[in-house]
Input
Amino acid sequence: MSDPKTFRVTITVSGRVKGVGYRQFTAAEATRLGLDGYAKNLRDGRVEVRLEGDREHIETAIGRLRIGPSSARVEAVDVRWQDGTSGIRGFKVE
Output
């Protein structure tokens, strides 16, 4: 049974987000906010991010991901809130 205070979101980020340190930026933000999850490149050039944890912290992370590192150019951020958690612990860059 998942903690009712723990939320999960899957985020897909489009733009110039590959090869510019976007996944590492995401990992640093997630770690700073105490969130679990992962960031991985998708074949079509987007980055997929899964975050789990406190809703307020997730919303803060989403705001930062809309900006990204200075070398990135974020064009679109698709956010899908989901029920439950997957049990991910820590944050991984895949």
